């Protein structure tokens, strides 16, 4: 009998191969040939799932967004009930919030790799409109997550009175973007743990 190949697992292998190439050599080196070399698959096998490298790039970007988004949603689902129930003190609530937002910072090897690859994709999207919608959806999703954090702080009475919740959510999203960029590409200038400290300090300034 022919060997069964799980198409979801195979596509994931191909996406991971693209990530590895981007990390070592840059996005410009991604091609069907380099992906075939990285995975050990025949180009014909790869074409069974994707017509060309452009399709793989888009799928890999969507895969990265999905993986990070799933982790954030899982953390949020665990965090918000604890915050909303008031079952933890202010300091514990702050640590939970910082931990949640730090999921977007390159604090371990997995997140560092994801951050570097994401930044490479973002540069590519500047001149490749076909990727723009994925980034727009991701950026809006990140902003929505930040809004949920700020709204939770407001509902619990720990947000400074008079602050514009929408503006603070946008500022928080921009701060995380900047911290990720600097600490992922130049950790000798901004160590990832220092980035986390700066994020925590910003959240403290928002608290009443």
From TrEMBL:
- The gene for this chain is pksA
List the keywords (alphabetical): DNA-binding, Repressor, Transcription, Transcription regulation
* Stretches that traverse the bilayer: none
Q: Which Pfam families match?
A: TetR_C_6
Q: Which residues bind DNA?
A: 31-50
Q: Which organism is it from?
A: Brevibacterium sediminis
Record-annotated HTH tetR-type domain positions: 8-68
Q: Where is the signal peptide?
A: none
This protein's superkingdom?
Bacteria
Q: Give the matching InterPro entries.
A: BetI_C, Homeodomain-like_sf, HTH_TetR, Tet_transcr_reg_TetR-rel_C_sf
Which protein, by its recorded name, is this?
HTH-type transcriptional regulator PksA
């Amino acid at each position: 009998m022919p060997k069964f190949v799980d198409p979801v697992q195979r596509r994931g292998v191909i996406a991971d191969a693209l990530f590895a190439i981007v990390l070592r050599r840059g996005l410009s080196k991604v091609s069907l040939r380099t992906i075939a070399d990285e995975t050990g698959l025949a180009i014909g096998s790869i074409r069974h799932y994707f017509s060309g490298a452009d399709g793989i790039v888009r799928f890999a970007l969507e895969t990265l967004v999905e993986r990070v988004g799933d982790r954030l949603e899982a953390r949020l689902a665990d965090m918000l009930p604890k915050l909303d129930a008031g079952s933890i003190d202010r300091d514990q609530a702050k640590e939970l919030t910082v931990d949640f937002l730090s999921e977007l910072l390159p604090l371990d090897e997995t997140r560092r790799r994801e951050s570097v690859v994401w930044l490479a994709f973002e540069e590519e999207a500047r001149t490749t409109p076909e990727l723009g919608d994925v980034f727009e959806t991701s950026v809006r999703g990140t902003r929505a997550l930040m809004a949920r954090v700020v709204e939770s702080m407001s509902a619990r009475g720990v947000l400074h009175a008079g602050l514009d919740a929408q503006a603070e959510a946008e500022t928080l999203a921009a701060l995380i973007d900047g911290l990720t960029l600097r600490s992922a590409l130049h950790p000798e200038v901004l160590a990832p743990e220092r980035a986390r400290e700066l994020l925590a300090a910003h959240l403290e300034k928002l608290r009443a």
